[in-house]
Specification:
- The chain is mainly alpha-helical.
- The chain has one domain.
- 72% of the residues lie in helices and 0% in strands.
- It contains six helices and no strands.
- Helix 1 packs parallel to helix 5, helix 3 packs antiparallel against helix 4 and helix 5 packs antiparallel against helix 6.
- The longest helix has 40 residues.
- It is elongated, with a radius of gyration of 22 Å.
- The two termini are 19 Å apart.
Length: 211
């Protein structure tokens, strides 16, 4: 399953850029002691952008692990990405960006859940494939009363991947909504709708277990 993390990072970057450009002038000329609302907004979005860039590296590693069928690497990179993304949920947003923050949190929750669910589904598929291979390779002295050989349920896996893709799309939709909200707050135009439509239209690749 390709998680298109470049798009996720781009969504965060667009939102951050909108706030930074909107509030850079307003934040000048402060008294140097108490941060202005504009400065707080800018710092919040800068932190979100930094965290998302760090998480994108881990998620890129996750995609590579999926391509290679490396379950251990999937677990490691997914765990690392989840820890980084969780930093966004743990942040405290300035009041003007409170609703934006809720959308970011919802997006992060869906994305991390999608990662976890994919790993669970792939692990189950890999386990059934290993069992089938072991049964096929074993020597039987008699076929009488032999138990049926385990089979690989690829149809169930495909169904699970479709559900996981839907959760991922939901996460991307939350991030795109947050991006639009930030653009509106900054007085700019909402981002093009093709970001969300691309996420909705992307189909996962069904990974097969490696023997």
């Amino acid at each position: 399953m390709h998680m298109s993390m470049k798009r996720m990072s781009r969504v965060f970057a667009c939102a951050a850029a909108a706030v930074l450009l909107s509030f850079v002038l307003a934040s000048c000329g402060g008294d140097g002691q108490q941060k202005s609302p504009a400065q707080l907004n800018r710092e919040y979005m800068a932190s979100v952008n930094t965290i998302s860039a760090e998480a994108a590296d881990s998620l890129s590693s996750f995609n590579a692990a999926v391509s290679e069928g490396d379950l251990a690497a999937m677990r490691l990179s997914a765990s690392d990405a989840a820890k980084k993304l969780e930093k966004i949920s743990e942040m405290t947003a300035p009041e003007p960006l409170a609703q934006v923050h809720e959308e970011y949190k919802a997006g992060v929750n869906d994305l991390t859940a999608a990662l976890s669910e994919y790993i669970e589904a792939y692990a189950a598929l890999q386990s059934s494939a290993d069992a089938a291979a072991a049964s096929k390779g074993s020597t039987q002295t008699s076929s009488r009363n032999q138990a049926p050989a385990p089979t690989v349920d690829t149809e169930t896996f495909a169904s699970q991947v479709a559900n996981i893709q839907a959760r991922y799309d939901s996460g991307m939709a939350h991030l795109a909504k947050a991006d639009s909200m930030v653009a509106e707050l900054a007085g700019g135009e909402a981002p093009a709708k093709d970001e969300a439509s691309e996420a909705q239209g992307e189909q996962p690749a069904e990974e097969q277990p490696q023997e």
